[in-house]
Design brief:
17 helices, homotrimer, globular, mainly alpha, Ammonium transporter fold, 424 residues
Chain lengths: 424, 424, 424
């Protein structure tokens, strides 16, 4: 009996540590989004996008602590609405979803198996990821403070409610909808919120000419954007790898390892497919399409990184990498101006990720996947549209034409990102 | 009995791994300081600050191996002075502080519980953090080699002796002074050493005008500074999270998880408070104050990241975030020229962090906290002042006015950080 | 018996997690190489080197899955040639080298001890490291697609075959050749492939003047190069630390901890030696030599990071740091144009690392080390020379003089890395 006690302690400690380290890797994705977006905008709008990225990460943590976590993982609820319970922020580790979830665990040890605080940490960094998707799409012309207000609503309410429907045990989960680490719950949700914002905001001045021409607006710092992509690639091992939720026995350890491998292979497939597609379409090895290909591969595999073989994961990623290039071209034809391609990467490819699950996972059907996708999109887009609309009425969401011309860095932040470098 | 043997082995391995991974995260903070400081100085002084940062990390490791570790964690000592024992560098893992400390451990398993080498690794990266604080404050006008000499003394002697007083079981520890991960031992110590250097060094040319005006000297690369802040934020999970020193049972795993959450919440509180304070004072969302707010939140929670609830941690961080903005303004009024705000972030907020402990941890009193703070400051400041003074006499600490004007990169390093970018 | 079952499960999970996390750190080195190389080339060639780095990482993963892993760790083979077995890509975790290796493990628990997928993950990121070494040496004048084709052959065949000879249990292993984490198998192999490419490619235009003068071509972004070095330093804890291959008992945990410490000390010794050597030779504290010194220290210790004491590791690193400065100077005298010093860092110092092993590890002899070194060099250089030669005949390997003058970014990638910054 003494030995069993020791094993339970070790098991609990290992699974908690696994959550904390994978959670730290997901937190690191916030830096990835910040660098990616800072590299893909013009230098005059760089300090502002950096400000948005660090502040949104802070807001996400605070709002998820105050409201979001309790909405998403409530002690009780009817599957559509969670029971109100704000105990977490005061009680902290008392509100232990781990205990609720533990009955689902198949493994050697079947009990309460990791710290509730580590669960909160892991879930909290996910909401920040969803919000980071938005900042890129609305870059270079949205008011900083309007964005902040939206971040409060998104991270405290819009994201957590649809998260409850799936991961909190709500009706999408009951229906059999499968979304391992969040191609839908995180990426499509973020992309839908971004799309709503972009539609109300309009395109950047000069992006689309009077005669229908589309003008490329190159990012100012591609090493930074590449660094951001590598950071996201690394962080995704935590994002998908941690979403297995348990590590401490042979079966689960094998599953986590398979998820790491498949996550990597999908990104690799996306890079190769993205660069080859760009080569065929544009005649050049467009670096930004290699970066978008990597991210597309990662988004595509996120709904089901466990079931495919490594070569299957590579192919899923490769399809994502082709898809994202065409999606970016299509968005521009539709005059949906998304400076970093976030809606294409996280939205279009997120949908693909959800819909490819039934091929590899027999628990999923095309009907439940399509339903879950439609529900997440409808809720995230609709609720965001209303929120953006109210913000637009109350305080406005777009900077003045003059501020846009001068750059939002000076107007919003009162400083420049690269005061010594730019050729003015 | 065989099972117990297996559990002891696993427990030892898990706690060692926990130390190594959290230590690697703290090592990563060296990159964070390098990027933060490189982003906040002018381009003409960037290569030199990078050189200082990588060389100080190397010196810290070597000096801590040769002297510091034995001073800080001696086999014996009277509480004020450690017994001399230079066995570590030759014997390596023979000098196992883990065994000394193990009697303090409350948990399932109570024995020698992790590799002494992993303890050395974890402690070694802390001394580098303290030294990194100094490099920012003296940036843009200090001689490179004078800085190196100071780094030798600081990491080999000044930091380890006060570290011994608290973490090595010396008189501050005996008195009941509480400093979980080093708001005092690491951050205040580094800031005090920096202050001593800045006072002997004087302000940068042109920073303070003849009529009392204070001139802003903008940093050359804010994406780099933001990256540095995200790196530090991530690394701090190791800094605070590893300072629990043990992970391998339910109680300790819960503690480590709570430390991760509180560390994150304090940084989040600091960001929001910093940017709102800047908005109120300057009318703009000053990115650098969001970055300083994040770091201030992290420094503030470091003295006690375990006891507060998440919302308490958020508030501690928020107070730190407000404080740092006013501290930076005050330093400039006092003509203490600190290009990156290191003395404000690590010193002023470090003191706040120490003094807020008694609110959450009943083991601490305001008297013992104030005493510990005063002792650390007096020793670190005094010993550093003497050291800087001797260096100044012997080899000088300030570059020539001409070299300062031209930039220390050419003078000290013989190259430029961005040879193709700057508008000259 | 129930307890033993639990311990086996935990042991398996912990060792798998150790592989996955150290593997993620090695993956992170891909970002380090990308940033290092992007910082050390001129701005007009930056986007192309970034493209090469992210695409090579993708190719490495795919080719290693399709061919490399089965060549390097075959189910069977005669020590020189592996038996053909392509089951991995389809079966995934069925092909479990862990089971094959487990009989070598000395420890508390002696059985199949970690997930085969985690082993694949760890080995896969190593092949990417070898390939990353090549991209730096051929920078600024090689055709992008020629490089890609070489990457396919290198990561699918050239690297894995010599890897089989040592780590897969082939004839070099049987002979007693010692190479803990790959000073030879990874670094020398990569450098030999790079050297073959550079010899066929020739120097950059303008690097060597008509009268024998050597012109310095400064890198465009030293903060980026410094970041890359810090990333590599951090990632190397995974590279060497994970190469112990097991963690889960007291002896192995102590070994992993010693490897972490020695890896760090060698890098520290390399930095100090590199900067002092540069100071003595050039009169300036050349930042790039501090960076090369760090990497040289890391390469030097990689063949044997376990046996030395910390002070021994520091000295090994320091010799590496001196050596690399002279090697870089010598390469230039020989008109071997290597823009980032990769051949010196990974080749010359890699050989030193192999040859210093017998001083610390009595299992090694100078004869076996020299034999292993010669075999790895001869195979990697020869096979690469043939491969580069064929590619040169079929599609050419060097861009046109005009494209080289304009910069390969525009010609190969159709975009610029820093469109707003450079002074043209």
């Amino acid at each position: 009996m003494e030995a069993i006690e020791g094993i339970k302690n070790l098991s609990y400690a290992l699974d908690t540590f696994y959550f904390l380290i994978t959670g730290a890797l997901v937190m690191w994705m916030a830096a990835g989004f910040a660098m990616l977006e800072a590299g893909l905008v013009r230098s005059k709008n760089t300090a502002e996008i950096l400000t948005k990225n660090i502040v949104l990460f802070a807001i996400a943590g605070i709002m998820y602590m105050l409201m979001g976590y309790n909405i998403m993982y409530p002690a009780d609820g009817n599957g559509y609405f969670p029971a109100i319970d704000l105990s977490f922020m005061f009680g902290g580790s008392e509100n232990v979803p781990a205990e609720v979830l533990a009955t689902d665990i198949k493994g050697w040890y079947d009990g309460s198996y990791y710290s509730g605080m580590s669960d909160f940490f892991f879930q909290m960094v996910f909401v920040a990821t969803a919000m980071s998707i938005v900042s890129g799409a609305v870059a270079e012309r949205m008011k900083l403070w309007a964005f902040m207000v939206f971040a409060v609503v998104m991270t405290g309410f819009i994201y957590p409610l649809q998260g409850y429907w799936k991961w909190g045990g709500g009706f999408l989960d009951a229906m059999g909808f499968q979304d391992f680490a969040g191609s839908g719950v995180v990426h499509l949700c973020g992309a839908a919120a971004a799309l709503a914002g972009v539609l109300l905001l309009g395109a950047r001045k000069g992006k689309y000419g009077p005669n229908g021409e589309i003008r490329a607006i190159p990012g100012a710092n591609l090493p930074m954007a590449t660094l951001g992509t590598f950071i996201l690639w690394m962080g995704w091992f935590g994002f998908n790898g941690g979403s297995e939720l348990i590590l401490s026995n042979v079966g689960e350890a094998n599953a986590v390892a398979a998820v790491f491998v498949n996550t990597n292979m999908a990104a690799a497939g996306g890079v190769v497919a993205g660069i080859l597609t760009a080569r065929m379409l544009f005649g050049k090895a467009d670096l930004t399409m290699a970066l978008n290909g990597a991210l597309a591969g990662l988004v595509a595999i996120t709904a089901e990184p466990l079931a495919p073989t490594p070569i299957g994961a590579t192919l899923i990623g490769a399809v994502g990498g082709v898809l994202v290039v065409f999606a970016i071209i299509t968005m521009d034809k539709l005059k949906i101006d998304d400076p970093v391609g976030a809606i294409s990467v996280h939205g279009v490819v997120g949908i693909f990720g959800l819909m490819v699950v039934p091929i590899f996972n027999t628990d999923a059907t095309y009907v439940t996947q399509a339903t879950g996708m439609a529900v997440i999109f409808a809720w995230s887009f609709g609720a965001s549209l209303v929120t953006w609309g109210i913000i637009k009425m109350v305080m406005g969401i777009r900077v003045s034409a003059e501020e846009e011309y001068e750059g939002v860095d000076i107007g919003e932040c009162g400083l420049e990102a690269y005061p010594e470098f730019t050729n003015k």
